[in-house]
Amino acid sequence: MHSSVFLDKKGAVIRAALLWSDGRTTAECREIETRAGGEARLRDWVRNPALEGFTLPKVLWLRNHEPEAFARLSKILLAKDFVRLRLTGILATEPSDASGTLMFDPARMRWSSEMLEAVDLSASLLPDVGGSSQVLGNISEAGARLSRLVPGTPVVGGGADNACGAAGVGAVTPGDAVSSWGTSGTVLAPVAAPRVDPKLRAHTFCHVVPGVWYVMGVVLSAGGAFAWYRDQCARDLPEPSRDDVLVDEASATPAGADGVTFIPYLQGERTPHRDSSLRAAFVGLSLAHSRGHMTRAVLEGVCFALRDSLEILRELDLLPQQLLLTGGGAKSAFIRQLQADIFGLPVATVNREEGGAYGAALLAAVGAGAFPDLETAVQRTLTRRPSATPHPETHKAYEHIYARFKSRLLVARA
Predict the structure, then answer these.
(1) Staple 63 to which of 44, 70, 276, 393, CB 3.0 to 4.6 Å?
(2) How far apart are alpha carbons 78 and 127 in whole angstroms?
(3) 3-class SS at 213?
């Protein structure tokens, strides 16, 4: 999601893609705010703030820093839509991924002419928008040679990673909510109408389900924080059991890691702080602490950062009664229980572990006619496993530890 594939008039790639995690566009974000006339306009035009991860700042970066490359620019595609182009020869996207470009209005379901005019970009740079489960092309002869798929095979719209991840665990109707651990982490709640956080801490995007949107908070380093810690601090452990050994050590450590706090802002943070300059830190270490304390602090720190997003949903009167889990945070019984205890909510998984890939497959099944709609596909293929429920005393203890985490923000800003 958000990544920028820049094409010339012949459909050739102009330069390496700028990915969602590329944070070099802070100046371009300020330029967007200035050109738009303030964040209130962004809230009205595109329902989201200008953040480094989004697509539009990357387009302006290309214009500002590589003018010769920008002069060749004919089309801007997102990553999956570039794959579609190579498979089918069709230039297209769909609402869930377009929502994260900062050039699309999720409420009006169209490219924002107001935003494009403010930054002096032509709408001709952008592809047509179809449905997430709509067939938006068929495998061409050239695509068949590249992929070994049968010519004529339908290719549906698809979706943004977190929208597909939500579909992959069945969170397709208002009232559901999902906690996801990928490289980044999210807490996502489907809604029946566009809801915008007045403070623009959370995102408002289109879901892959027609007539459904979602509000989402994003933690930039979730599974990525654990992977960094594992690779830097547990090199002595043998593969492939390193993760299991670390989690076992963490589970043998008390809640709160005996005073150790980990701030997981390894590459800045999006929700709720919107600050690419924030940095990570271990706070409270002493000679008495072990690797188990540090591991537990990392896992707790990720959960606390995700809880920040959950608290924003609650402020917006989106009050989930349960969280569905997907990604790395769903695979360990200890981490599932940790989330339940920190969030104060039951957490559950489903009978599929493919996450976003399974959601994309369901969209393909709908587009191919196997199911009449995504809701039916979810009902017929997914079942929820028994929930992990919060332990009351542990959750009560974590209320104080979460407050300690929030008080450490000054360290992250140092």
Answers:
(1) 70
(2) 10
(3) strand
DSSP letter for each residue of 72-100:
T--EEE-HHHHHHHHHHS--EE-HHHHGG
Q: Are residues 59 and 135 in the same domain?
A: yes
Q: Which two three-digit tokens encode residue 237?
A: 């452990």
Is 189 within the bounds of a domain? yes
Is 248 an annotated catalytic residue?
no
pLDDT digits (tens, 9 = 90+) for 157-208: 999 999 999 999 999 999 999 999 989 999 999 999 999 999 999 999 999 9
H helices within 201-352, ranges in order? 223-233, 242-251, 291-315, 333-343
Least Cα distance to 106 among 135, 132, 73 occurs for: 132
Asked if 27 and 56 sit in the same domain, the reply is: yes
For the entire predicted model, the pTM comes to 0.92
Interior angle at CA 100, CA 98 and CA 103, nearest 5: 65
Query: Is residue 359 in a domain?
Result: no
Q: What is the largest CA-CA distance in the chain?
A: 65
The confidence score (pLDDT) of residue 353 equals: 86
Which domain covers residue 267, as residue numbers?
Answer: 160-353+364-414
**Spatial separation of the C-alpha atoms in residues 155 and 281, rounded to whole Å:** 45
Residues 177 and 249 both lie in one domain: yes
Domain total of the chain: 2
Same domain, 89 and 166: no
Whole-number Å distance between alpha carbons of 115 and 121: 9
Same domain, 100 and 51: yes
Options 105, 161, 308, 341, the catalytic residue: 161
Where helices occur in 237-318 by DSSP H, the ranges are 242-251, 291-315
Pairing of strands 185-191, 178-181: antiparallel
Domain end among 110, 125, 156? 156
For the segment 315-334, the average pLDDT, to the nearest whole number, is 92
Residue found under tokens 């409420």: 107
Among the three residues 156, 177, 211, which one is the final residue of a domain in this structure?
A: 156
Residue 239 pLDDT = 87
Distance of CA 231 to the CA centre of its chain: 23
What CATH number should be reported for the domain holding residue 257?
3.30.420.40
**Confidence at residue 409, expressed as pLDDT on a 0 to 100 scale:** 78
